[in-house]
Design brief:
Rossmann fold, elongated, 9 helices, alpha/beta, 2 domains
Protein backbone atom coordinates (compact mmCIF):
# COMPACT_ATOMS: atom_id res chain seq x y z
CA UNK A 1 0.00 0.00 0.00
CA UNK A 2 1.28 3.45 -0.89
CA UNK A 3 0.83 6.63 1.08
CA UNK A 4 -1.80 8.94 -0.36
CA UNK A 5 -0.50 12.50 -0.21
CA UNK A 6 -3.27 13.75 -2.48
CA UNK A 7 -2.84 16.37 -5.16
CA UNK A 8 -3.70 20.01 -4.61
CA UNK A 9 -5.40 19.97 -8.04
CA UNK A 10 -8.53 17.83 -7.40
CA UNK A 11 -9.58 15.33 -10.06
CA UNK A 12 -13.16 16.50 -9.59
CA UNK A 13 -12.18 20.02 -10.62
CA UNK A 14 -10.47 18.75 -13.76
CA UNK A 15 -13.54 16.67 -14.65
CA UNK A 16 -15.88 19.62 -14.08
CA UNK A 17 -13.72 21.87 -16.25
CA UNK A 18 -13.57 19.26 -19.01
CA UNK A 19 -17.35 18.87 -18.99
CA UNK A 20 -17.75 22.65 -18.97
CA UNK A 21 -15.46 22.92 -21.99
CA UNK A 22 -17.49 20.35 -23.92
CA UNK A 23 -20.79 22.03 -23.06
CA UNK A 24 -19.45 25.44 -24.13
CA UNK A 25 -18.06 24.00 -27.36
CA UNK A 26 -21.42 22.43 -28.22
CA UNK A 27 -23.25 25.65 -27.42
CA UNK A 28 -20.74 27.65 -29.49
CA UNK A 29 -21.20 25.32 -32.47
CA UNK A 30 -25.01 25.24 -32.17
CA UNK A 31 -25.67 28.92 -31.50
CA UNK A 32 -22.58 30.82 -32.55
CA UNK A 33 -21.68 28.89 -35.69
CA UNK A 34 -24.97 27.47 -36.98
CA UNK A 35 -27.35 29.88 -35.27
CA UNK A 36 -30.01 27.26 -34.59
CA UNK A 37 -33.27 28.98 -33.62
CA UNK A 38 -31.74 32.42 -33.02
CA UNK A 39 -31.49 35.72 -34.86
CA UNK A 40 -28.29 36.72 -36.62
CA UNK A 41 -27.60 39.35 -33.95
CA UNK A 42 -27.88 36.76 -31.18
CA UNK A 43 -25.77 34.39 -33.27
CA UNK A 44 -22.94 36.91 -33.45
CA UNK A 45 -23.18 37.67 -29.73
CA UNK A 46 -23.23 33.94 -28.96
CA UNK A 47 -20.22 33.33 -31.16
CA UNK A 48 -18.18 35.97 -29.35
CA UNK A 49 -19.31 35.19 -25.78
CA UNK A 50 -19.38 31.42 -26.03
CA UNK A 51 -16.17 31.30 -28.05
CA UNK A 52 -14.33 33.39 -25.48
CA UNK A 53 -15.78 31.35 -22.60
CA UNK A 54 -14.78 28.08 -24.25
CA UNK A 55 -11.25 29.34 -24.85
CA UNK A 56 -10.81 30.40 -21.20
CA UNK A 57 -12.29 27.23 -19.70
CA UNK A 58 -10.41 24.95 -22.12
CA UNK A 59 -7.15 26.74 -21.36
CA UNK A 60 -7.73 26.40 -17.61
CA UNK A 61 -8.59 22.72 -18.11
CA UNK A 62 -5.30 22.17 -19.92
CA UNK A 63 -3.42 24.03 -17.19
CA UNK A 64 -5.11 21.92 -14.51
CA UNK A 65 -4.09 18.69 -16.23
CA UNK A 66 -0.48 19.87 -16.55
CA UNK A 67 -0.45 21.02 -12.91
CA UNK A 68 -1.98 17.75 -11.72
CA UNK A 69 0.67 15.71 -13.48
CA UNK A 70 3.45 18.01 -12.30
CA UNK A 71 2.38 17.76 -8.64
CA UNK A 72 1.50 14.06 -8.61
CA UNK A 73 3.37 12.13 -5.92
CA UNK A 74 3.16 9.11 -8.23
CA UNK A 75 5.65 10.88 -10.45
CA UNK A 76 9.13 10.27 -8.93
CA UNK A 77 10.46 13.27 -10.87
CA UNK A 78 7.46 15.46 -10.11
CA UNK A 79 7.62 18.81 -8.39
CA UNK A 80 5.95 17.64 -5.19
CA UNK A 81 8.67 15.14 -4.34
CA UNK A 82 11.43 17.51 -5.39
CA UNK A 83 10.07 20.31 -3.22
CA UNK A 84 9.24 18.14 -0.19
CA UNK A 85 12.61 16.37 -0.22
CA UNK A 86 14.40 19.63 -0.96
CA UNK A 87 12.85 21.50 1.97
CA UNK A 88 13.17 18.55 4.36
CA UNK A 89 16.93 18.29 3.90
CA UNK A 90 17.37 21.64 5.67
CA UNK A 91 15.70 20.35 8.84
CA UNK A 92 18.01 18.79 11.42
CA UNK A 93 16.85 17.89 14.91
CA UNK A 94 19.08 17.24 17.91
CA UNK A 95 18.64 13.96 19.82
CA UNK A 96 15.21 14.12 21.43
CA UNK A 97 14.43 17.31 19.52
CA UNK A 98 11.07 18.46 18.22
CA UNK A 99 10.14 19.93 14.86
CA UNK A 100 6.97 21.67 13.67
CA UNK A 101 5.50 21.60 10.16
CA UNK A 102 2.93 24.39 9.78
CA UNK A 103 0.08 23.59 7.37
CA UNK A 104 0.99 19.92 7.03
CA UNK A 105 -1.93 19.02 4.72
CA UNK A 106 -1.55 15.31 4.01
CA UNK A 107 1.60 15.01 6.10
CA UNK A 108 4.14 14.77 3.27
CA UNK A 109 6.70 17.28 4.58
CA UNK A 110 6.20 16.25 8.22
CA UNK A 111 6.88 12.61 7.34
CA UNK A 112 9.86 13.46 5.11
CA UNK A 113 11.46 15.44 7.95
CA UNK A 114 10.71 12.64 10.42
CA UNK A 115 12.40 10.10 8.16
CA UNK A 116 15.54 12.21 8.05
CA UNK A 117 15.47 12.79 11.81
CA UNK A 118 14.69 9.49 13.58
CA UNK A 119 16.44 10.90 16.65
CA UNK A 120 13.62 13.44 17.13
CA UNK A 121 9.89 13.90 16.59
CA UNK A 122 7.93 15.97 14.10
CA UNK A 123 4.58 17.62 14.75
CA UNK A 124 2.32 18.44 11.81
CA UNK A 125 -0.28 21.15 12.41
CA UNK A 126 -3.12 22.11 10.09
CA UNK A 127 -6.66 23.46 10.37
CA UNK A 128 -7.82 21.11 7.58
CA UNK A 129 -10.57 23.49 6.49
CA UNK A 130 -13.45 22.99 4.07
CA UNK A 131 -11.31 24.30 1.19
CA UNK A 132 -9.27 21.09 1.37
CA UNK A 133 -11.89 18.70 2.70
CA UNK A 134 -10.04 15.60 1.49
CA UNK A 135 -7.12 16.39 3.83
CA UNK A 136 -7.39 15.37 7.48
CA UNK A 137 -5.54 14.28 10.61
CA UNK A 138 -6.65 10.73 9.91
CA UNK A 139 -5.10 10.88 6.45
CA UNK A 140 -1.80 12.12 7.92
CA UNK A 141 -1.76 9.39 10.57
CA UNK A 142 -2.51 6.76 7.92
CA UNK A 143 0.26 8.02 5.63
CA UNK A 144 2.77 7.97 8.49
CA UNK A 145 1.80 4.38 9.33
CA UNK A 146 2.11 3.30 5.69
CA UNK A 147 5.54 4.95 5.48
CA UNK A 148 6.60 3.12 8.65
CA UNK A 149 7.22 6.38 10.49
CA UNK A 150 6.44 6.46 14.22
CA UNK A 151 8.10 9.73 15.26
CA UNK A 152 5.27 11.98 14.06
CA UNK A 153 2.15 13.47 15.58
CA UNK A 154 -0.57 15.49 13.89
CA UNK A 155 -2.97 17.97 15.43
CA UNK A 156 -5.27 20.88 14.68
CA UNK A 157 -3.57 24.24 14.47
CA UNK A 158 -3.84 27.69 12.94
CA UNK A 159 -0.84 29.46 11.43
CA UNK A 160 -2.29 32.83 12.41
CA UNK A 161 -1.97 31.96 16.13
CA UNK A 162 -0.06 28.80 16.91
CA UNK A 163 -1.11 27.08 20.11
CA UNK A 164 2.45 26.63 21.36
CA UNK A 165 4.62 28.50 23.83
CA UNK A 166 7.59 30.57 22.71
CA UNK A 167 10.66 28.49 21.79
CA UNK A 168 8.86 25.13 21.79
CA UNK A 169 10.58 23.57 18.77
CA UNK A 170 14.10 22.93 17.53
CA UNK A 171 13.03 23.37 13.92
CA UNK A 172 10.05 24.79 12.03
CA UNK A 173 9.10 24.30 8.41
CA UNK A 174 6.25 24.89 5.99
CA UNK A 175 5.55 24.46 2.29
CA UNK A 176 3.16 26.51 0.11
CA UNK A 177 0.87 27.47 2.98
CA UNK A 178 0.87 31.14 3.93
CA UNK A 179 -0.06 32.53 0.51
CA UNK A 180 -3.43 30.73 0.91
CA UNK A 181 -4.31 32.65 4.08
CA UNK A 182 -6.35 35.57 2.83
CA UNK A 183 -6.17 38.95 4.47
CA UNK A 184 -3.24 38.05 6.69
CA UNK A 185 0.06 39.90 6.82
CA UNK A 186 2.46 37.28 5.46
CA UNK A 187 5.51 38.64 7.26
CA UNK A 188 3.56 38.57 10.50
CA UNK A 189 2.67 34.94 9.80
CA UNK A 190 6.37 34.18 9.44
CA UNK A 191 7.13 35.92 12.72
CA UNK A 192 4.39 33.91 14.44
CA UNK A 193 5.95 30.72 13.11
CA UNK A 194 9.42 31.77 14.20
CA UNK A 195 8.10 32.67 17.65
CA UNK A 196 7.94 28.98 18.55
CA UNK A 197 11.52 28.30 17.41
CA UNK A 198 14.14 27.66 20.09
CA UNK A 199 17.43 29.51 20.26
CA UNK A 200 19.82 27.69 17.99
CA UNK A 201 16.94 26.17 16.01
CA UNK A 202 16.67 26.03 12.22
CA UNK A 203 13.81 27.08 9.95
CA UNK A 204 12.98 26.30 6.31
CA UNK A 205 9.82 27.87 4.88
CA UNK A 206 8.85 27.65 1.22
CA UNK A 207 6.08 29.72 -0.33
CA UNK A 208 5.07 32.11 -3.11
CA UNK A 209 6.93 35.06 -1.62
CA UNK A 210 6.26 37.56 -4.38
CA UNK A 211 6.30 41.26 -3.41
CA UNK A 212 2.56 41.60 -3.96
CA UNK A 213 1.94 38.88 -1.36
CA UNK A 214 4.84 39.32 1.05
CA UNK A 215 6.16 42.82 0.56
CA UNK A 216 9.90 43.45 0.71
CA UNK A 217 11.38 40.14 1.82
CA UNK A 218 14.96 41.35 1.53
CA UNK A 219 14.20 43.95 4.19
CA UNK A 220 12.45 41.26 6.24
CA UNK A 221 15.59 39.10 6.09
CA UNK A 222 17.65 42.06 7.31
CA UNK A 223 15.13 42.55 10.11
CA UNK A 224 15.57 38.93 11.20
CA UNK A 225 19.34 39.28 11.21
CA UNK A 226 19.04 42.39 13.36
CA UNK A 227 16.94 40.34 15.79
CA UNK A 228 19.74 37.82 16.14
CA UNK A 229 18.83 35.23 13.53
CA UNK A 230 21.82 33.74 11.73
CA UNK A 231 22.37 32.59 8.13
CA UNK A 232 19.08 34.05 6.94
CA UNK A 233 18.81 33.28 3.23
CA UNK A 234 16.19 33.82 0.55
CA UNK A 235 16.58 31.26 -2.23
CA UNK A 236 14.66 31.58 -5.50
CA UNK A 237 13.55 27.97 -6.07
CA UNK A 238 12.41 28.63 -9.65
CA UNK A 239 15.92 28.77 -11.04
CA UNK A 240 16.87 25.13 -10.95
CA UNK A 241 16.64 24.24 -7.26
CA UNK A 242 13.13 22.76 -7.40
CA UNK A 243 11.96 23.86 -10.85
CA UNK A 244 13.08 25.82 -13.88
CA UNK A 245 11.77 29.26 -14.89
CA UNK A 246 9.55 27.81 -17.62
CA UNK A 247 7.85 25.43 -15.18
CA UNK A 248 7.38 28.26 -12.71
CA UNK A 249 5.69 30.49 -15.29
CA UNK A 250 3.54 27.69 -16.70
CA UNK A 251 2.32 26.54 -13.28
CA UNK A 252 1.90 30.09 -11.92
CA UNK A 253 4.62 29.50 -9.31
CA UNK A 254 6.70 32.59 -10.00
CA UNK A 255 7.93 33.97 -6.70
CA UNK A 256 8.54 30.56 -5.15
CA UNK A 257 11.15 31.23 -2.50
CA UNK A 258 12.76 29.27 0.31
CA UNK A 259 13.47 31.23 3.50
CA UNK A 260 16.04 29.39 5.60
CA UNK A 261 18.19 30.24 8.57
CA UNK A 262 18.96 29.65 12.22
CA UNK A 263 17.88 31.43 15.35
Amino acid sequence: MKANYKNWVPKGMILALAIGSIVLLIAFWALGVNGFGVSWVFQIISAVVLGAAFFVVALFTLWSVVAYRSFSYDNPNGLSRKIIDGVAKYITLPPGGRGLDVGCGSGALTIACAKLNPQGTMTGADRWGAEYASYSKELCDRNAAIEGVSNTEFMKGDAIKLDYADESFDAVTSNYVYHNIRGADKQQLLLETLRVLKKGGVFAIHDLMSPVRYGDMQSFAVRLREQGYERVELIDTTRGLFMNPTQARTLLLAGSTLLIGRK
